Fold this protein.
Amino acid sequence: MEISYQLMEDDYLQGYKAFRRRNTYSLWRTRLLYVIFFLNFALALLLSIVGPPGRFPFLVLLWGFVAFWIYCVWYSPRRLARKMITGSPSASLPHTVDMSEDGLHFRTSASESRLAWNLITDWAEADRVFALLPSPISFLPIPKRAMTHDQQGALRTLLEQKVSSKK
C-alpha cells in the first residue's frame, strides 16, 4: 500500500496529542494534571478575590503555575509543530510511504529511508493522524487525509499485527 502526503503543522500537533494519549498511564497522568491545574486556577482566583492580606507572594506562585501550565499545554505543542515544519527543510516536502509486510519505506525528493516493523515500539491514533513511535520520546505522523477509509483500516490492521503483538 502506498500513501502520498505533505506534512502540515496540524499533523505534528495531532501526532503530539496522540503521543500524549498513547497508553493508560499517560492518559491518566494528563487527566490528573488537568485536575491539579483547575484546582490551582480556582484557588488562585478565589484568593485573588477574597483572600487574607499579605497573600501576594503566594498569589504570584499560583498565577505563575497557571501561566506555566497554559504555556506547556496550549502554546508549546503548537510552537513545536510550527518549528518542525519551518525548521526542517525535508519535513515540508511531499512524502511517499510504501507499507508492506517488511516495514515502511519513506521517500521524499531529499531522502529515502526504511523502517522495519520491529523498530516501531508503539503506535497511537488521533482524529487526523496515525503516530508511529520509533522510540519512547519521538513519533512519525502519518495523516489520515492522505488515505481512504480502507487504507486506514489496512494500516490499523498492519500496526496491530506487527507492532501491538510485540507488547
